[in-house]
Amino acid sequence: MKTLHRSIWMVLGLLMGGAALAYAQVPAPQVDFPYSGNRTAVWVVANLHILFAAFILGAPIFAVVAEWLGYKNNDPKYDRLAKEVIKVTVILYSMTALTGGLFLFVLLGTYPDFSTWLIQHFFLVFAVIYPLLFILETIILYTYFYSWDSMKGSLKGRHIALGILLNIVGTVTLFVIDGPTAFMNTPAKAAEGVSLVEFVSNAGLWDKMANYSWMPLNLHRLVGNVTFGGFIAGLIAAYMFMRSKTDEERSYYDWMGFVGNMIGVGALLLLPFMGYLLAYELCDYDASICPYMMADQLSMFFEMQGAMIGLIFLASNYYIWLSLKRIEGVENIRISGFVALAVLVMPAVMGMAWKMFPPPEWQSLIYLAALVFAPMLLGRVPGLKNFTVSAFTMIKIGFLMIVVADAIWMTPHGFVPTQGLATHDLELPEWAEELALMPAKNAAAFTLVFLTIVNYIMYNRAIKRGTIIWGKIDFASQFVLIFLAFSAIWTMGLMGTVRSLTRKYFHVYNLVPDFTPEAFTPTLSYSAWWITGVTIVFYAVVSFAILVTLKPASSKAQAH
Amino acid sequence: MANQSFTKNVLKKATIGIIIGVILVVAAQQTHFPQVFQVMFFIYAMLGAFVFILLDAPPMKRLEGVKAVGALLVFYLLLSGMYIAGASILPQFDPTIEAGKIEKVLKRRKAASEQGKADELIARAKALDERAKTISKQLASLGGAAKVEVVEVTGAGGGAASGDIVALGKEQWELQECYNCHKLFGQGGKKRGPILDNIGSLMTPEALREKILNPKSWMAEGFDKQYKKGKMPDKYRDLMFEEEIVALVAFLASLRDTSVETPKPIKMN
């Protein structure tokens, strides 16, 4: 009897084993996204997810700063601004989770082997740390939002502390998830004599997280998110300004647009340098990435980036110009003529300085300091201090130099998709080659940043000495705010594409090759279509969220 | 009245823009800028004119309701069209060139990877076979019988390289994109790495191999900065197969054009 039982169990075991084998032998159907292909599908979903994630991380930074300013200056406008931004954030938070889940499913379905490989290498991050942080962030965000009205007066300080905690958790979440992302670009560098495969196989989680591009990517995304948050606040303000029926509402949303733009531009000033730091680290990790970005397949992507950054700087300064025009008494504001002179020579002087002393050599800072501080000092010397120009003249000189700086930034070595195809009739003459090199590009970037700062200094002076009439701004300014948000999102999409493409035909650079037929660099034109599509979808969702969440009438009632 | 003055403003700024543009084009012609750059300078001049027209433009009328929504939609369409058109006007890299290159570079890796998968399957099949045999023996001892068929899985082997080894080495030169940093036959490279036209006369094949696998082992005279910064990637020992390295070394060793000045290699460690 006992033998019979054992036989039955054995046969059952074999049958089950056979069934399991049969199940394992039924191949999973191949996932093939129609029209776009698998890689583009992953790209689109990832891009969309990152945009929502950038917003929900950037907006709370913006909001808590605004809330603190309102608390410090006892100005309820700031508090209302902060609350409205957080209201939209709460709505979009679910979209971040939704697109995140969608991204995971699409990635697992289209690249199952690689996805499993990556999850196994960062299992603790994906299965424990990241979900816990996300849950914690969700709890804090909802508590922060729903306790807004109850934590007033003496409790306001605690509410702001809650906002700071939200941002700390958000930033840590960003840094944690940046680890695997940066790892795909610059996997841990192997010690001498050890192969990369061997090194990564034995590397601990921290070795893989703290890779070459991790911290530069963290900083770049953090600053980018603040910029993004500022410009989206500007977008909210523009929509609401257009919907406003009363002068009071228009006055408030005009002010909100100004604050959003100021924070967006303030962070934008740091962005070129953060991007440079990231590119520097990528090139330091593997020097062959540099020509791929700057001289080979991606060179025209950077040409487009130059155009976008130029347009964003032009638009943000145009907004300052329109803002200045509605200040009574602005015609009396003057600035040292030496500032105008410094601006005129800045691209040439700094280009030469960085050519002689390329970063990280410190000597170029002497030239930089001389250009920045000499006008201030000369402007105080008796006899010279009367050499001044009006605010409007200074801004016009500034715009001229913005166009010049844009032109320098956008001048390539050759109008070719890769320098390998360069011929004499498509490339710069030898004597002008410097125009296409990094010193000239850095000088152009610095000029754009410096001019924007000068414009804000003048704006501050104008506010202090004149009378600002909120709500009376040129209606065109609202389109400028919308343009800034749209262009910032588009540029984020473009640069995200570039960062991802620097992995070339690898899922993880130099480590895990992508054997699919789609593992090539798409054309800029193809990329632009998809980036525009993603931007429009994101914009439509955000616009819907703004229009559903905020209503001028209800806002008014709330303000009362 | 305001419209008239704005029209005047537009005409004035546009005229100035065109004049500056023409001056820039003539200056660019005289200084040997190719035509494409001349066009670019003219566009910048017109961009400047457009910016200055905007600066003095009269305030825009407020839009409300359907008009505002319509204006927004048109604005978004305009922006989308502008960015797509801007990106499409720029020169486009032909992906098929790269796709062909990638296929060649990854061919061996793919074969090796598939071989790896096949090896894994064979190992699994063997383990299952062992288990089945054990169970069969147990069943046999109980009076039953079972016949287990084991399917042998054979791996796909990679084909050996064939043909002229120097030609294969030249292909490796292209595939590994050495030309991005090194000038050869008057093409490629800028200042990142030394010209290599006569490298075969200056380095033995063993030394060339050593340099490829360990870039810190040799330094080209006058390239101290690049050497210190580690500009030459140390990835080739991981990325290239033995046959590929041998071919590349053979190609480099064949470069003996003494008429081209090639920086002297210095042994470092």
Tell me what you see in this structure:
The complex is a heterodimer of chains A (560) and B (269). With 560 residues, chain A is mostly helical. In chain A, 74% of the residues lie in helices and 3% in strands. Chain A has 20 helices and six strands. Chain A has helices at residues 2-25, 38-73, 76-110, 112-121, 123-146, 156-185, 196-202, 205-209, 214-243, 247-268, 271-285, 289-294, 299-325, 337-356, 364-378, 391-409, 438-465, 476-501, 524-549, 552-559, and strands at 327-328, 334-336, 388-390, 467-468, 506-508, 512-513. In chain A, a hairpin with a 3-residue loop joins β5 (506-508) and β6 (512-513). In chain A, α5 (123-146) packs antiparallel against α6 (156-185) and α18 packs across α19 (524-549). The model of chain A has no long low-confidence stretch (mean pLDDT 89). Chain B has three domains: 2-89, no CATH class; 108-159; 165-267, Cytochrome c-like domain (Cytochrome Bc1 Complex, Chain D, domain 2, Orthogonal Bundle), CATH 1.10.760.10. Chain B has a two-stranded antiparallel ribbon with strand order 1-2. By secondary structure, chain B is mostly helical. Chain B has ten helices and two strands, in the order αααααααβαααβ. At the A-B interface, α1, α13, α16, α18 and α19 of A face α2, α3, α4 and α9 of B.
